[in-house]
Amino acid sequence: MDSRDPFSFSTRRRFLGAAGVSASALLLSNCQKQAAESVASEAKGAPDVTLRIGPVLADIAQDHTISTIGYNGSVPGPLTRLKEGVPAIVDLFNDTDTPEYVHWHGMIVPTDVDGAEEEQSLVVPAHGHLRYSLTARPAGARFVHSHVMPMSDLNRGTYTGQFGFVYVEPKNNPGAYDQEIFLASKEWEPFFTTAEDEEDSGIGTPPPDLPKETKPNGWEIGYQRFTINGKAWGYGEPVRVKQGQRVLFHILNGSATENIKLALPGHRLQVVGMDGNPVPHPAMVDVLELGTAERLDVVVEMNNPGVWIFGTPKDDDRRDGLGIVVEYAGKNGKPQWIKPPKQVWDYTMFGTDSTAPMPDEVIPMVFGKINGGTGQFNHWTINGREYSEKDPPRMLQKGKRYRLAFENRTDDAHPVHLHRNTFELTNVHGKPTAGVMKDVVLVKGYRKINVDFTPELTGLTLFHCHQQLHMDYGFKTLFNVM
Asked: Which of 384, 380, 367, 365 is nearest to 217 (CA)?
């Protein structure tokens, strides 16, 4: 038995086989079929976006090829450019044996096309096709990814290569840069492990009333390979720049479970946008931090000629691929890495110190953990309850301002995501702030963050931790906007 894997080979093979048969047996309900036919009938003409879900063999490093599922034969999938406020026809083809959900992360779209089973979205059937129309908004860096719940199957969901940038072109774009680069990080070859990922900064103090945990921690996920744009550093093409350029980097953490840090030695990084939305106060940093599914827009003045590694400060992960070479014109030689200074990531440095308007309602959301113990999975709760499809969704009213008061009573960091909405950070670790608009926020261990949002669209709206293992085992809840 592999010590990294909680199942023996024979047991896992039977488990995965059964899971495949079960998933393949899923059929669209009559109402879903009718909805799919109705949506498809309204979407006439040539498609603006075509995504084909299918097997991919990807060369990610020298003499190292991975087998995964991706979009359009590549990992990440192709960059999709849409125009703000303009309807687009989407064709989805599924060449696999299992149904799939395709989620338009960060976009404000109706539930039927949002791509989440919990919201009763349309499914892409196995060996099937789905067509619909959506209107792209808001402008900025969004992305598309699988939204199935793989549970213990590390060959499905966000563990695969089913992800890709979506850039919604703004109606007015000043274009104050010389070059635009899209970078998407990803980890590969996941395995089960008992090792816990230690937070090196930003963790709070455990509350005094928190009961002492008696069970050991359950399974976590580790990875053997890391890439940016599907290549380990030094293997793919470098980012080529010229001295004096202003380069706009759009950066996506496409991981299933990992929060990451990135630095470019010899350069400071100006954060101008978060999750595709401009920040009120662009600020310079030495190290970027991105929770799972977060995006950053970063401007870099290219004023230090050489060949550099734009990569993670974690030596082991950088060694295993998490980085990309940045090469100035006319320069060559071995890529350089210089360890950056330590820095505490603080969302409030990009916002204002204003106090947000009072909400119509405050919704407490307390995050809890039930340790699974050796050889089992941890389970996660919101306000003391694991997600159950039998629980009725919490009712909200369109147009009202709601405050979600996050309290993390675990030592794990949680990148939490609200579908079909953009929210405003209003209090971070006790510090009032305003103006930073996001759709994912990383709530570190024993920390509190408040966010406000005003739902624009009616229908079911999913909230969850974007750490796949947390979401699979209870960390999600549903709202219903009327």
From this structure: 380
Please indicate, yes or no, whether residues 183 and 319 belong to a single structural domain of this protein: yes
Print pLDDT tens along the chain (482 aa).
Answer: 333 333 332 333 223 333 333 333 333 344 444 444 445 546 789 999 999 999 999 999 999 999 999 999 999 999 999 999 999 999 999 999 999 999 999 999 999 999 999 999 999 999 999 999 999 999 999 999 999 999 999 999 999 999 999 999 998 876 689 999 999 999 999 999 998 776 667 899 999 999 988 899 999 999 999 999 999 999 999 999 999 999 999 999 999 999 999 999 999 999 999 999 999 999 999 999 999 999 999 999 999 999 999 999 999 999 999 999 999 999 999 999 999 999 899 999 999 999 999 999 999 999 999 999 999 999 999 999 999 999 999 999 999 999 999 999 999 999 999 999 999 999 999 999 999 999 999 999 999 999 999 999 999 999 999 999 999 999 999 999 99
Q: How far apart are CA 464 and CA 477, in angstroms?
A: 6
Residue 160 belongs to a domain: no
18 and 118 inside one domain? yes
Cβ atoms of 50 and 91 within 8 Å: the answer is: yes
Domain boundary among 286, 319, 345: 345
Q: In angstroms, rounded to a whole number, what is the distance separating the alpha carbons of residues 225 and 188?
A: 5
Range of the domain at 119: 9-136
Residues 184 and 294 in one domain: yes
- Same domain, residue pair 374 and 325: no
Q: Within a domain: residue 148?
A: no
Other beta carbons within 10 angstroms of residue 110's beta carbon come to 16
Contact 101, 117 (CB under 8 A): yes
Query: What is residue 353's DSSP assignment?
Result: S
User: Which among 345, 369, 385 is the end of a domain?
Assistant: 345
Taking a C-beta distance cutoff of 8 angstroms, is the pair 166, 145 a contact? Answer: no
List beta partners, residue 249: 181, 298
Say if strands 49-61 and 87-94 run parallel, antiparallel, or are unpaired.
parallel
Answer yes or no: do 185 and 297 share one domain. yes
Q: Which of 398, 452, 390 lies closest to 426, judged by CA?
A: 452
Look up the pTM and report it.
Answer: 0.91
Q: Are 191 and 318 in the same domain?
A: yes
328 with 365, same domain: the answer is no
Do residue 39 and residue 110 come from a single domain? yes
Residues constituting the chain: 482
What's the CATH number where 419 sits?
A: 2.60.40.420
Residue 361 tokens read as 């309602």
Which of 241, 138, 229 lies closest to 180, judged by CA? 241
